[in-house]
């Protein structure tokens, strides 16, 4: 299905150039600003080379039994090590599904010390998380260009959240910052959004451009019920996402079984093609996404420097430091207003005030630095000159990539053939398929 998710090694030179330049720019121009103002203690760990070299990642999030693991199996067209599928809550851990020549499972503690993987910062969540984290490797053609992260099914009730033993939403935030797509899956039979699921969706805020919403198992209801379920889902999402725009919802049944109600077959096929076309663009746009994330990080680092320097300026020299610290944290909103006014910063660029107050409570304000303009000027020049130069290289990069198949063919559906989108390599494949049976056609294309 996804045999097109491959790049020819000889044609990756421009991609490597862009990513190599990004590494140099980050280390020489942005990292000094982050270290000077303790950015890593407040927001995000230092970026390593593996963060830039990582393949595009897809994060699946949803309540239990919404079909997350089955969705991965449908993309890969095979099982992966450690797979468990069932109507009960089966996936109890974060599973990164990645490419390797051999099938196997790498446990979390070994995974975070591997310098070739980008998961090293996750060790701060402790053994409770690492015991619930693993990497499943297998030689799938799909995984040559992307990686997929399966998450534990989100349950309802306070007990399940407490019993996890680690910061579940914090882990989600870490992944959300680094993945290229976040797929929220909903079951057509379970549209309720539990408290923990609401918190998980709120943790993804700020990454709205990465989120895609899927209404799964839509073939289990007829067309009249589907219309009502779709409306109910849009109403529920409007309460949680709190955006004036209407979110795009992809409707379908992403598994290999025959459709139960096939009156909406054409709709499911079109929706599936739209979603897969979106996923297909990830390898092609990987460098652009990393560039975009670096720009967002640079803007946040500048705002953070303004905030820290403002807090440092308000601290007394000798007496009353503790009381002044409590006062500044309590009145952080007025500090935000002053930063926006004096430095022409948009209020939307500032971090969440409640989270900032929580982190500041454990910080030593005496170690904060005053504003150092040369560091900020270097970042400004980076955004104005270096980033613009790299932006000009990206269209050239896309020309060097194998981006789309020449022919997109879909075999006709019968009662025992699953809903599929077949991607073929060219007209020669169609000539081979002439006169072949339906099952032979399928085998030819998917080999």
Automatic annotation (TrEMBL):
BP GO annotations: cilium assembly; endocytic recycling; endocytosis; protein localization to plasma membrane
Q: Does the keyword Transmembrane helix apply?
A: no
- Known Gene3D superfamilies for this protein? 1.10.268.20, P-loop containing nucleotide triphosphate hydrolases
Which SUPFAM superfamilies is this protein grouped with? P-loop containing nucleoside triphosphate hydrolases
The record gives the membrane topology as: Peripheral membrane protein
The listed locations are: Cell membrane; Endosome membrane
UniProt-listed CDD domains: EHD (cd09913)
One Pfam match, given by its short name, reads Dynamin_N
Protein name as catalogued: EH domain-containing protein 1
For this record, an example GO cellular component is: recycling endosome membrane
- Which ranges carry the Dynamin-type G domain? 52-283
Residue ranges annotated as coiled coil are: none
Keywords (A to Z) from UniProt = Calcium, Cell membrane, Endosome, Membrane, Metal-binding, Nucleotide-binding
Q: Molecular function terms in GO for this entry?
A: cadherin binding; GTP binding; metal ion binding
